[in-house]
Amino acid sequence: MGDKNYVVLPPRVRAIPISDLTIFGGTEKYEIPEFVGRLEDQTYLNGDNFVLRIGYKGCPEPLVQWYKGQQPIISDPDSTKIVITADSAYAQLALFNAQREDGGFYNCRIENANGVRETGCHIFITNDGPGGPRGMQRSYRSVLYTPSQRYSRY
Predict the structure, then answer these.
(1) pTM score, two decimals?
(2) Distance CA 18, CA 21 (A)
(3) Structure confidence by residue, pLDDT tens digits, 35-92
(4) Residue ranges per structural domain of the chain
(5) Phi, psi of 62 (to 5 degrees)
(6) What is the per-residue burial (b if ≥16 Cβ within 10 Å, else e) of 122-138?
(7) Which domain of life is it from (predicted)?
(8) Which among 12, 52, 83, 133 would be 20 to 30 A from 2, CA to CA?
(9) Under a CB-based contact definition with an 8 Å cutoff, are residues 57 and 31 in contact?
(10) Residue closest to 52 by CA, chosen among 15, 83, 87, 7
C-alpha cells in the first residue's frame, strides 16, 4: 500500500482534545463541542412567542437536543406550537402562544463523538406584565454586576 499511514478510529471516540489526525491520507480536525454564548433567563406574558437561540461549534458536527426539565422536546412536523431548527452553527427552539405551563427550565444539549455540553435557562410566563409579578426579584447577581449609582451622605 505504499508509505501512507492509516488511522482506524472506533465508531465512538470520547475525550479527544483538539488535534489533527491523519485519516486515509487526508487531515481532519476533531473538536469537543462548545457553545458560543449562553442562554439567558427570560420572562414573557401569556400568549407571547419566544425563541431560544444558541450558537455552537464542534467537529464532527454535534447532534442537538432540547429539553424542558428533564424531558426531551420532540418537534412534531405537524405542530405549530413548537418548532426546533438547527444548522451547522446555531440551534433554535421557537414556542408560539406561550401559556403558564410552558414556563420552566429549558436546556440545550450538544453531543459528538468527542464530548457533550449543556446550557440552559429559566423561562417565566406571567399575566402580570413585563418584569414579572411585583416583588419578584432575582436571588442572584451576575459576576459582571456593578451598581449603577453610588450612594453617599453628601
Answers:
(1) 0.65
(2) 10
(3) 999 999 999 999 999 999 999 999 999 999 999 999 999 878 888 899 999 998 999 9
(4) 34-126
(5) -70, 150
(6) ebebbeeeeebeeeeee
(7) Eukaryota
(8) 12
(9) yes
(10) 83
